[in-house]
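Researcher: For the record, we're logging two predictions in this thread. I'll number them. Prediction 1 follows.
Model: Prediction 1, sequence and structure:
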Amino acid sequence: MKVNKSNELLWLLGIIFVALGVSICSKADLGVSMIAAPAFVIFDAVKSISPLLSVGVVEYAIQGLLLIILCIIIRRFNWRFLLAFAVAVLYGYTLNLFIWLLGGIEFNTVAMRYVMLLVGDIITSFGVACFFRTYMPLQVFELFVAEVADRFNIRIAKVKSAFDISLLIISVTLAFTLFGDAKTFDWSTIGYSSYHSIGIGTLITTAINSPLINLMGKLIDKTFDHSVRFTKLEKILKR
């Protein structure tokens, strides 16, 4: 039996599950996804500046900058873009909450780290699949891909691939330039620890991300009815 009129619920589950999954992957210390990596790398570099800074704050600051870049690229602004930034702020603080909740947990063995990396990837993929099935505003990352694809009439899959690769390159570049410790890092340990949140786990997540999202999508379709509960809200957001 399906959960009825769950469109808005799927949006909420998307925020919660993506934040939880990313937090678990970070805790596994094998490397986070290319989407999450820039915030974690930059936070690692600036965390000593102010106690007010957190991964979540850096995350929505990056998305705010990306929103400005998007408006410059497509040469237009829509008030709904601000909703995407609001979602990024909500996600950022949800991410902070889960990082805090997982703070006292340790994955002491390499095997456990890989298991938890997979668990985190599955949870994140479930959250992303939830996002794909709702009319509610998404984060700036998804908005950027959709708007650029629409503006230049490019297949969204191509824009998504280029976007992901760009974030991966940016993250690796930041990790190698912000800390000045690449020469002293013991690269023989990369199989069981990350280098400023970049590692084997980043590549694993990149490889299994799409298949997992598709699999979780099928599970969601069997469990949830995507119909809208708040029809007036849907009309406002789709005007």
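Researcher: Logged. Prediction 2.
Model: Prediction 2, sequence and structure:
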Amino acid sequence: MKLKEKLWNWGHLEGSHNGIVPFDCKMSPEDFAKEYGIENSFIVSYGGNIQPPFNDLAKRFSGLRRVKWSVVGDASSPLPKAELGNTDDVIACLKDGKNIDGGVMDDFFSPERMKRFPPSVLRKIKKKLNDSGLDFWCVLYDVKIYEDLTEYLDCFDGVSFWLWGCEKIKRVDEYVDRFLSVTAGKKVMLGIYLYDYRDDGTDPMDADLFRKQIEKYFGLLKSKRIDGVIFCSNTVGDAPLETNKILKEYIKKYGDTEI
């Protein structure tokens, strides 16, 4: 398998981040796949902009290689009323999206979401997805990495880990070591932001720190210690960012490496 087959887009509908970045971006998940050669994508509702039924979108994204669909969208998306979130809706569109192989809960580890989806409910979601041939993923941020979340993490097949704010990349070794220790035995992916979406403002990523992170994560991919690297995202994929140039450079250099 080539390294680029282990790369993912954290996919939102085109233009989803235009309100929080100083660019007018129009790149779709499909366009991102063509431009960067990253043909796997999470598809995640942003601000509630993806609502069931998902069948038409599943058809639209059928050209992607692999897709993992949000059972619960980002923090700005309203929580579904159904006990199992949008689990049934994801399963219902499998006939139109045969490339869908998983479900994901974005921004999960908040008090509201943990209360709304306790382990007893998460286990039901996991079973229903697994019975349909799909795995179940969540997102974990650096601010939660030293909390004991075992009873929740045990309910997921896979976990993706994200450093919020590029300054934290300076401690990437410490954070990743901790992440791999608390998720031992699970599928894991590491996320990389193409833009610095900090709580106190937004700025381009530091190019040197971005290179440090991508080199670290590609090395972990090549040594088979992780299952994938995710880039956030197509929403800034057509912006005039140094990180976009660097990403293309690294994919050209290492994308065809056999791992």
